[in-house]
Amino acid sequence: MSGQGPADALGRLGDLMGDPGRPPVEVRWERAVERLGVQLPSDFRAFVERYGRVRYHDD
Prior knowledge:
Elements: H1 6-17, H2 29-36, H3 42-51
């Protein structure tokens, strides 16, 4: 999958998961960085902004 960026991956994931059915989530990433002490990857941030909280199965 060389040459494909986070937007491509999010698009492919969106094909599998479908439309989230709600507006994008507004996240204050600077607070997350302050609390966690690390910058989160851009593909993760894009996913969260599109889908919000996601539960894949009941564990």
